[in-house]
Each structure stands twice: as structure tokens, then as C-alpha cells.
Amino acid sequence: MDTTVLIQGETGTGKELIAHAIHNASPRSGQPLVRLNCAAIPFDLLESELFGHERGAFTGAIAQRLGRFELADKGTLFLDEVGDMPLALQPKLLRVLQEQEFERLGSGRTHRVNVRLIAATHRDLERMMHCNELRGDLYYRLNVFPIALPPLRDRREDIAPLVEHYVELFCHRMGKSIHAIPEEFVNACKSYSWPGNIRELQNVIERAVILSNDGLFPNLLRSTRSPSAAAFPPSTSLREAERTLILGALEGTGWLVGGPYGAAARLGMKRTTLIARMKKHRILRPSDENRNRAVLDDPSSRSL
Q1: Cα 161 to chain centroid, rounded
Q2: 216 vs 236: CA distance, rounded Å
């Protein structure tokens, strides 16, 4: 339908993704979806971005320019962070929503368009209206069909499939392969509050794929407090990341290497491969390490 949609949710919850889905499911899907972030454009340029301008309309306007409404004609305009639109510009936005017409800066000619609007914001528009920060008539024009996106911490059942999706996505982009995602990492993600929502999760997964080596996922966490903070810093080498991953898997299985519940199965590799990696990194069972240290500390062994 052509109904105006207002998507509300915290930063990083996927508001633009929902806007794309709405557009793609509409009869306008074959027409352009034009995007504009109202918070990213200075006030003195925002009007020109929305409605366009004529040559000479202001200093620096050396040529005619079409605005986003004209570019979105017969399609969809997605206004992100619409709550950041200045009060002085709100009547012009209201007019084009009501009448589907506007004038470019520096022109008296009225242009008509056929645009479906999808707006998004992380702000409380109703509170802004009561505080006179948002026109009431504009609020009701925007709030025709509201969609509230819950934060990631309120839909933890989505975390595991999101982790799998982003691992697959970044592996494809980077030409890498991950044998298995450690269960400890997924559980850590489920227990974390994700203040940055899906965008923060996406960044953590991208960092993990960058640091992966030979199919090993490097972010096996010793702490479930914060996957974002616990992820390996950029200064960590791939060798260190792999060694930490293997140690974490061994400690998590009580140093059981083979079998269905062993570290090799948890890491998604063969038992012989894991043993070879352990030798490469000089990883010994604690009892074996203590035995070797005792031999080295025994004076009688130094003559051997």
C-alpha cells in the first residue's frame, strides 16, 4: 500500500532494512528507493537536498539540482532520523506529504510528485510534539502506520541466526571459510545486552572473520560479559588468536581432544588436525606441562 510508515527503534535495530523490505514488497518495488538521513545534512543544505534548487538560488548554486522528492517520484522516499528535522523546515515537509507538491529553492514553479514516504527515528516523536519540538500536524501525518522495532536484547532468539548470517556474509565477502562457530561464543552473544544492537553484533562478527585462520573462529570467549569488549584487539596476531581459540576449546572440554564432546568436534576439525595444531603452538595438557617442568627442574636430569 501507499500508506506512510513510521519506523521507530533504537540506533542499530535495522530500521533501514525494514524500509527496504516494505519498499520491495510494494507495487513501487520497480521504482527507486531514495534515502536521506536528516541528521547528517546541515540545516542550510537540508531544504535543497529535499526539494532541490535552481541555478543561482544561493551562493554556490552553480547549476540546477533535483531534490530527493523528485528523484523518488513514483517510488519511495526513506527519511531516516526524521525527528532531527528543524522546525523551520517541517511545514514544507508537511505540505509535500499532504499535497504531493513543492517548489525548488529559487523557483516559483510548483512541481507535483507521486512519492510514498517511509520515515524512521530513534527519538520519541510524541514527546517532541508535546515539547513543541515537532509540529503536531506533521506528527500525525507521519504516524499513520507505526512500526516499533524492539532492541536486540528483547529478541534474543534472533541472535543465533544473525550470528550465522553475518559469518556467512563476511566469509563470502572476504573469501574465507569458518568450519564451526563455537557454542560458547553464541551463548556469550545471547547473554550480552548489545547496546549498539545489530550494528554492534555485525561489527564483532566482521572482526572475528577478519582474524579467522584456516577455518578457525577466533572469538571463543573466556568471559560472557561483553563479546564486543572481549573480541581480540586488532594488535592480536592470527597465531595468537588461533592458540587462544584452541586453549579455550580444550579447557571447555576438560582437555578431551577426540570424541563427539571433545575439543576437535567443538572446533569443527579432525582429531589429528587438532593434535598437529597443538604441537605447532606447543600446547600441552597441564599434567604433561608440569611433568616437563619437573624434569627440567630436577638437577639429575641436566646431565642427560
Answers
A1: 14
A2: 15
